[in-house]
Amino acid sequence: PLSISSSRRTGSRYAGIASPLGVIAATAIASLVLYAVLIECWSPPVRAGQDQQSDNIIAIEHFLYDAPSPAVIVGSSMADRIPAAALGPDIESLALAGKSSLDGLRIIARSGRTPRRIYVETNTIGSMPDAALEHNVFAQPGHTLKRYVKALRKAYQPVNLVTSLLRRGSRGAT
């Protein structure tokens, strides 16, 4: 009898704690699923994030996960400054600010995608590719999950999404 009453007392104490945690967990999961569905349905065009590193990852993820383009330009921040409108709809930009053309070429090589044309801008010779960038981009399970769940991509992180929408709004774009 003593063990039964003490287990009831212990069970009721933890049941009171578990209930609010369960509600919080269920709310968090529901919010994430709702956000993922919103991104899948809406898919706003996001080409820039809150900083240079975000911009580079967004460009890489567009190349890896969106519809393939027949041509790609790789290079440094010089090629990154070419407006997308000047490149046209058939040229994807893998020009990465603060990086070299070798970084873009290594991303293309590991991606399994082979564009018909690759344009290479280079202003430095002898710089080594950023192995950490390549490792982070292709790290599992993130690389595979981002292929199927857009909300996990850098472009659709809430801060980058809001930053992009605010930039577009300040330029008067729709």
Structural write-up:
By secondary structure, this protein is mainly α. Helices cover 59% and strands 8% of the residues. The chain has 8 helices and 3 strands; from the N terminus they run ααβααβαβααα. Strands 2-1-3 form a 3-stranded parallel sheet. α5 runs parallel beside α6. The radius of gyration is 23 Å and the shape is globular. The chain starts with a helix and ends with a helix.
Summarize the structure.
With 174 residues, the protein is mainly alpha-helical. 59% of the residues lie in helices and 8% in strands.
Question: End-to-end span in angstroms?
Answer: 71 Å
Low-confidence stretches: none
Helix count from the secondary structure assignment: 8
Based on CA inertia axes, which overall geometry fits?
A: globular
Helix/strand order: HHEHHEHEHHH
The radius of gyration is: 23 Å
The description of the largest β-sheet is: 3 strands, parallel
Provide the β-strand percentage band.
5-15%
Give a count of the beta strands, DSSP E runs of length 2 or more.
3
The helix content, as a percent range, equals 55-70%
Mean pLDDT: 89
- Please state the structural category: mainly alpha
Topology, element by element:
Layout: H1 2-42, H2 52-65, E1 71-75, H3 77-80, H4 84-87, E2 91-95, H5 101-111, E3 117-120, H6 131-138, H7 142-148, H8 158-171
Parallel strand pairs: 1-2, 1-3
Attribute tags:
single chain
